[in-house]
Amino acid sequence: LLALMQAMQKGGPDWQASIVAALYRLSLIENDTQQVSYEQWVKANSEFHIALIAGCNSPNLMEIRKRLYLKFDRYCRIAFLLTQNTLEANHEEHVKLAQAVLQKDWQTAERLMVYHINGALENVIEKMKQNNII
Question: CB 3.0–4.6 Å: which of 8, 39, 55, 84 could bond 15 by disulfide?
C-alpha cells in the first residue's frame, strides 16, 4: 500500500495513461467470452497492478512488490483455476480500483486494494473447501 500511496502522490499524466492502457488490455481478457489461459490473464493482471504503483518512482518498493507477488502468485493460480468464471467480477474490482487511484482517492483505493487481495485469498480457501482440497 505504501507504493500505491506514493504513486498517487507522485504519479503524473504518463503514469495515469499507463493505468488506463493496462486496464484496457486486462479488460480484453477479463471480459472475453472465450476461456483464457492463466498465462494470458496473469500477464495482463500483473501489468495492471504494476502500472498502479509505477508512479511511486521507487525501484526498492517495486522490487518488494515483485517478490511479494511471486509468493502470492500460487494463490492467484489456484483462484484462477477454481473460479475462472468470475473474471468479469474481478474486472469490476479492477475498474473501481483504477478509478479511485486515478482520482487520487486514497481512502477508497486503500479499501479496494485490501478487499481485492484479501477477497481473492478468502475465495481460494472457500473454493478449496468446496472441492474437498482442504
Answer: 55
C-alpha cell at 92: 469490476
The answer to whether the CB of 105 falls within 8 A of the CB of 5 is: no
* Spatial CB neighbours of 64, under 8 Å, sequence gap ≥ 6: 3
**CA–CA distance from 96 to each of 77, 88, 91, 109 (Å)?**
22, 13, 9, 8
CA distance 29 to 91: 9
Could you report the per-residue pLDDT of 33-47, keeping only the tens digit for each?
888 888 999 999 999
Q: Band of the pLDDT at 80, cuts 50, 70, 90?
A: confident
Residues 74, 80, 82: CA angle, nearest 5 degrees: 100
